[in-house]
Design brief:
Strand content: 15-25%
Pathway: Isoprenoid biosynthesis; isopentenyl diphosphate biosynthesis via mevalonate pathway; isopentenyl diphosphate from (R)-mevalonate: step 2/3
Structural class: alpha+beta
Pfam families: GHMP_kinases_C, GHMP_kinases_N
GO molecular function: ATP binding; phosphomevalonate kinase activity
Helix content: 40-55%
Largest sheet: 8 strands, mixed
Organism: Candidatus Gallilactobacillus intestinavium
Number of helices: 11
EC number: 2.7.4.2
Length: 358
């Protein structure tokens, strides 16, 4: 039996701008995981989840193609991850097998609401890793990232894939997205996965960061899930109507994140907090340009409470709900901040940074 896990993620800074190839962002992997278990079977396979027990899916094969008995299922990212992984398996001249695949997620609230921790990315990464291990394929983190990125883009169609990077590499990372138009062109030329995995992807950059020892990351959840693809689509639609302002946002965000990366390298918590606050202002400008609600009233409340206690705070990810993050000195008395969040119906998510290797 094969068992692997992939962590969830949080954006620290650089959201939305990171969608543009080569534009940096900072993310962190968190110690809440998607766990995928695979057990070999005969004649047919199953996909099931502890969170979706009523939606267990049976599958069989028509030649080398997987055929699902139930097409109306919640496993779209997982299924595409299987398709990409098995395409790579065939390119490596290995025989396909049947198996039972199980998923267990810590990335949703107990009532099933999304926490905004990148569950679709973690499912994709965990499935790719599990199947590569199941088929005895020796793959690097870079190869897992590329396979997962292709699978995720095939389903979602947009996004930076920074959440994929966080789930693959763990810890704190500086990330710049690759040129997705280039990738689509390569796929259109019928390049094999082997070729794509051993090609440099233009503008892709993934770099580990080490936080200062006195840095404490706090995560607050507003209880209101948000749709990242929907919000990203709205920004993409509206940016053409405000080309100069959008171009300035990308430039300002790039400068902000580069300063933030330098602050991490210099272990300078004060400068890190300064750039977190700066990035919050930039996202609020983008919100006005794009006519989308990135920082909801509850997220504003979350940030303002954190600021009272010398924390630097902002939305995380697409905004519109989900989580806010706080960067604060761990020597601060945090109980009052957490208690005030609680009184405002903001839940502190108890999790740490996930540092791990393949």
């Amino acid at each position: 039996m094969i068992k692997v896990k992939a962590p969830g993620k949080l954006y620290i800074a650089g959201e939305y701008a990171v969608i543009e190839p080569g534009t940096p962002a900072i993310l962190v992997a968190v110690d809440k995981y998607i766990t995928v278990t695979i057990k070999e079977s005969n004649n047919f396979g199953t996909i099931n989840s502890a969170q979706y027990e009523e939606n267990s899916v049976n599958w069989t094969r028509n030649g080398n193609k997987i055929v699902f008995d139930n097409r109306d299922n919640p496993f779209h990212f997982l299924i595409e991850a299987i398709n990409i992984a098995e395409k790579y398996v065939k390119e490596n001249n290995k025989s396909l097998k049947f198996y039972h695949l199980s998923i267990n997620s810590e990335l949703d609230n107990h009532d099933g609401r999304k926490l905004g921790l990148g569950s679709s990315a973690a499912i994709t990464v965990a499935t790719i890793k599990a199947l590569c291990k199941f088929y005895n394929l020796n793959v690097t983190n870079d190869e897992i990232f590329k396979l997962s990125a292709i699978a995720h883009l095939n389903v979602q169609g947009n996004g930076s894939l920074g959440d994929i990077a966080a789930s693959v590499y763990g810890g704190w990372i500086a990330y710049s997205s690759f040129n997705r138009q280039w990738l689509n062109e390569q796929i259109g030329k019928n390049k094999s996965l082997k070729q794509l995995l051993h090609t440099t992807w233009p503008q892709l950059s993934i770099k580990r960061l080490n936080p200062p020892r006195d840095l404490q990351l706090l995560i607050g959840w507003t209880g209101s899930p948000a749709s990242t693809p929907h919000l990203v689509d709205k920004v993409n639609t509206n940016k053409n109507n405000h080309k100069n302002e959008y171009k300035q946002f990308i430039s300002d965000s790039t400068n902000c994140i580069n300063e933030l990366i330098r602050a991490f390298e210099q272990q300078d918590l004060t400068s890190i907090q300064k750039q977190i606050n700066n990035n919050r202002l930039l996202l609020n400008k983008l919100s006005k340009i794009s006519n989308i609600n990135i920082e909801t009233p509850k997220l504003t409340q979350l940030c303002n409470i954190a600021n009272k206690y010398n924390g630097a705070s902002k939305t995380s990810g697409a905004g519109g709900g989900d989580c806010g993050i706080v960067i604060i000195n761990k020597n601060q008395k945090l109980n009052d901040l957490i208690q005030e969040w609680k009184q405002s119906d903001i839940k502190m998510l108890k999790m740490n940074v996930a540092n791990f290797e393949n």
